[in-house]
Structure formats: C-alpha cells, structure tokens
Design a protein that fits this description.
By secondary structure, this protein is an alpha/beta fold. Helix content is 40%, strand content 17%. It folds into 2 domains: 236 residues, Type I PLP-dependent aspartate aminotransferase-like (Major domain) (Aspartate Aminotransferase, domain 2, 3-Layer(aba) Sandwich); 89 residues, Aspartate Aminotransferase, domain 1 (Alpha-Beta Complex). It is built from 13 helices and 11 strands. Strand 10 and strand 11 form a beta hairpin. The two termini are 24 Å apart.
C-alpha cells in the first residue's frame, strides 16, 4: 500500500508554492553564475535586514554542507568542536566534518540533548598539550535533536561562557524558524543578540526545495575564509540563483514564520489528539514541530502500514513524528485516529 502523508521528516515535504514559483520566476534568461546575480544580492540583503548589516551569508546545498563549511572556516586541523553527543553533527553526518576539515568533533554527554556550561568544564581542563585536540568551538542545535528548544537565557549563558573561554559559538539551525516561531521571537533575537557567532539557517525543512544559509555575524576574518571553504566543500552552486531565489522568497513577508508556525501548530494538534491514548507515552516536551512518544511495538507495525514515520529508538520503542508546512489538519486527524485504533487493537497470537 502506498503510504499516506509522511510524518517521518520535514525533508519529505513538498516545496512550498511560493518557493516553487520563485524558482520558476528566476528561470528567465541568463544570469552570471556562482552568486554574482540579482537574486543572490537580494537574498543577502534580506539576511542583513533580518540579522544586521554586518551579516555575511554563504549558501549551501544541504545542512551537512552548511555545518561543515561553517565550522571548517573557523577551526584549524588540531582544534576541536564540542557538541552534545546527540547532535546531528556527531550522529547523522557520517563524520563529514572530521573527514573534510581534519579537526575533531568531541561529543559531550548532556541531559536531554541540551548543552550547558557545566557540561563543558571537564573538556576545557582535559588534555595533555600537543597530545590532545584543542577546543575551539561549540555547536548546538536549536531546536535540539529531540525537538526541545533552548530558552533565550540558556543560549545567552552558554555564549557568555564560551566567549569567556575563547570558544566560537555555532548554531545548527536546520529548524531555527520553528524555534523562533515557538519562542515568539525573531531569528536575530534568538541568535545574534544572545552572542551566537555563526548560524546554519535552515531552508530545506521549511518549504525550500534545497538550500541552507551559513550566516557569520560581525566576524569578517572567518567569513573571508568561508568563501574559499564553500568552494572546497563543493557547496558553491554554479547556478546559484536557484538557491538564492528561494531564500529571497522565504524571507520576503516573513514567509519563514508562516511556514514554521503552521508546522508547529500541526504538531500541537497531533499532541492534543494522542496524548490521552492508552499505549502512547509522550516523554519529551512538544516545543515545535516534533513529537517523540513511546508506543506499543505491535501498534507501530500496524500504523506503518499506512503512515510513514521513524522509530527513533528501538529500545523503548520511541517513535518520532514530524509535521511540516504542508501538513494539513485532516492529515493530523487521520493519523491521530489511526494511532488510537492501532493502540486499541488486540494482538492476535
């Protein structure tokens, strides 16, 4: 049976109509390649309006490319980036950063995927001179890999601590729009104004066909290196206008906020409809567009015959359900009804 609407990932979502139209509109006539075109200029100006005039922006094809290019512009081969042990950089990028840069990712044990200053202490005191990679940066995901959001005070405290120890702060913002929408703040208020040095601004998970933006805030030295790293990392698009045009449209009239707010609202709706289902235990806070729940194994098998979603942890087992900009109320209600039916069904020996 062909699966119904996917709840597996916002990567599975269709392109938002306005974004698709922006690509079509950009497909008129010739344009200079590699970013020297009107669409790229406008997109960069929109980022500077959103984050501040000193913001320097580099577009990449995907999230792994954005994280690799951003951090490789900062670290030298004998230096390391500290991140939660659950971070996408550590668990889902196949060692891309380490292979490309020669630098090391040091995973830090955390509670529920959030990094705090006390978590970093042992790693800043560790090491034996040249025998140990030197911490140079920290990287956090906002929201975390478990869909939970750092509050403003948490990020500000982390940035203050990091800067006090000479560390650069990078945010993996594949879903930064969802975090900003949930917090009721602008992207600038939850990054630049708190002390974040660099942001991987996600587009693919928020309506784009493909594309992420690496934003450096008031640090021209690293940004100058990033131009070369972008090329070496194979993230410099020849026909850049088709990536830039998407971001131009995404940031116009705060479409990023509309798409993310809708995705978050669909997750809240799903949570409301399954939270009281016997056989479902939602064991993480539902902060944005992700729901994590422990569900009966036999019920999971029945549900996956019709709906596509991932088992995040085979142990409990814990599933992850993601909503996105194209998820409808009907999609959610049908899935919620199926959850209730699957959990109520008797297991036939």
């Amino acid at each position: 049976m062909q699966p119904s609407r996917s709840f597996a990932s916002d990567n599975n979502a269709p392109i938002a109509p306005e974004i698709l139209q922006a690509i079509v509109d950009a497909n008129e006539g010739d344009a200079v390649g590699y970013g020297d075109d009107p669409w790229t200029l406008r997109a960069r100006e929109r980022f500077q309006t959103a984050f501040g005039p000193d913001t320097l922006v580099f577009f990449t094809f995907n999230g792994t490319g954005a994280n690799v290019a951003a951090l490789s512009s900062v670290l030298r081969p004998w230096e390391a980036v500290l991140c939660p042990q659950t971070a996408h950089l550590q668990t889902d990028e196949c060692g891309a950063f380490e292979r490309f840069s020669g630098s090391k990712v040091i995973p830090v044990a955390t509670k529920r995927g959030k990094l705090h200053p006390l978590d970093l202490e042992p790693y800043l005191r560790a090491g034996h001179g040249v025998h140990f990679p030197q911490p140079r940066a920290i990287s956090i995901s906002q929201p975390t890999e478990f869909g939970e959001i750092y509050q403003l005070g948490e990020i500000a405290e982390l940035c203050d601590y990091a800067h006090g120890h000479g560390l650069f702060v990078h945010v993996d913002g594949a879903r930064i729009a969802n975090a900003a929408a949930a917090l009721g703040r602008t992207p600038r208020e939850i990054t630049v104004e708190l002390g974040v040095d660099c942001l991987s601004f996600g587009g693919t998970k928020n309506g784009l066909m493909l594309g992420e933006a690496v934003c450096f805030f008031a640090d021209e030295t690293h940004a100058l290196a990033a131009a070369f790293v972008q090329k070496q990392a194979m993230q410099l698009a020849s026909k850049m206008r088709y990536i830039s045009a998407q971001f131009d449209a995404l940031l116009e009239n705060d479409r990023w906020l509309r798409y993310a707010s809708h995705a978050n609202a669909m997750a809240r709706r799903l949570h409301e409809r399954i939270v009281d289902v016997s056989g479902v235990r939602i064991n993480r806070s539902v902060d944005c567009n992700a729901i994590f729940a422990v569900v009966q194994r036999d019920a999971i098998e029945r549900l996956q015959r019709e709906f596509f979603f991932y088992v995040f942890d085979e142990g409990p087992p814990e599933v992850r359900c993601i909503t996105h900009s194209a998820t409808t109320e009907n999609d959610v209600d049908r899935f919620a009804a199926a959850v209730r039916t699957a959990c109520a069904a008797e297991v036939v020996p």
